[in-house]
Write a structure and sequence with these properties.
Number of domains: 2
Strand content: under 5%
InterPro entries: Mercury-R_MerC
Radius of gyration: 18 Å
GO molecular function: mercury ion transmembrane transporter activity
Number of strands: 0
Protein name: MerC family mercury resistance protein
Pfam families: MerC
Oligomer: single chain
Largest sheet: none
Number of helices: 5
Helix content: over 70%
Structural class: mainly alpha
């Protein structure tokens, strides 16, 4: 897959994490001022929908990057923690009171994994360009 396609996966995953954060943090605050938003602030289906979008997007984007250049295990661990935390929050496990903390931690972890992957690919591309330029200068 081309680098632009991989970049789109990372940007989309970061944006989706931002939507999750907005849903978890801003919507309940807005619902206090606008009661009609209260139904959307507490809807469990929204968490499951965001998770259903985030999991395949994250897995596909990271797997495609891994196939080009193996990802460090810590990046996989960070992304995995993010997905597990999002799943736990969406299911209200271990308690409903920890739902927001888990989903925020999961969203931030998953976004951080994609930012890390994005910068990692940029560094690899810059290193490859520098190598190519040195090689051309020596010829």
């Amino acid at each position: 897959m081309k680098s632009a396609g991989l970049q789109l996966f990372d940007i989309s995953a970061i944006g989706l994490s931002g939507l999750c954060l907005l849903h978890c943090l801003a919507l309940p605050a807005l619902a206090a001022f606008l009661p009609m938003l209260a139904a959307g602030a507490d809807a469990a289906w929204v968490h499951l929908l965001l998770l259903a979008l985030a999991a395949p997007l994250a897995a596909t984007g990271l797997w495609c990057s891994h196939r080009q250049c193996p990802l460090p295990w810590a990046l996989w661990l960070l992304a995995g923690f993010g997905l597990v935390a999002l799943l736990a929050g969406a299911l209200g496990w271990p308690t409903e009171s920890r739902e927001t903390v888990l989903t925020v931690a999961g969203s931030l972890s998953l976004a951080a994994a994609h930012v890390w992957n994005w910068f990692r690919r940029l560094r690899i591309a810059m290193d490859a360009g520098a190598y190519h330029n040195r090689r051309m200068a020596s010829d």
